[in-house]
Amino acid sequence: MKTAFVKKEDTQRNWYMADATGQTLGRFASRIAKILMGKHKPTYTPNVDNGDFVVVINAEKIRVTGKKLTDKIYYHHTGYIGNLKAETLKERLEKEPEAVIIDAVWGMLPKTRLGKKMIKKLKVYRGSEHPHKAQNPEPIQLSKR
Questions:
Q1: pTM of the complete model beyond 0.85
Q2: Helical residues (DSSP H) of 18-143, grouped into ranges
Q3: Do 53 and 91 meet the contact criterion of CB atoms below 8 Å apart?
Q4: Rounded to whole angstroms, how far apart are CA atoms 56 and 126?
Q5: Which of 137, 141, 64, 53 is nearest to 100 (CA)?
Q6: Model confidence over 5-62: pLDDT tens digits?
Q7: Domains of the chain
Q8: Cβ-count burial of 24 within 10 angstroms (0-12 exposed, 13-18 middle, 19+ buried)?
């Protein structure tokens, strides 16, 4: 039996729309990462980006469990000496909830050139409005319930 490898030119990309309302952050992000990588397709090939586009709406309505709102801290360094900045998940959700979802999904993708291409197919929006109506994204239910 021969193994068929998918080429970059042969990939068919679909657009999906996921609603983050009431979803748990980590579980939601892992399911999105699976779609971005193309693992939901029978033609999955690890060295080819054959994943689909995902539009996430209502990013501010994502939920987390436990005490993560106060205990989870995001760090970044400005590049200057002594300028390590820190903010909690609660502060970050108030300021930019889109970045919280993007960071969670990025943590589940490969850190290669391929992973950088995959994360560009993720579009996250704060409210229910998005500019991708022309692509006709089909709604997808990402909860296991």
A1: yes
A2: 25-37, 68-71, 89-95, 97-106, 113-119
A3: no
A4: 9
A5: 64
A6: 788 888 889 999 999 999 999 999 999 999 999 999 988 888 899 999 999 999 999 9
A7: 13-64+96-139 (3.90.1180.10)
A8: middle
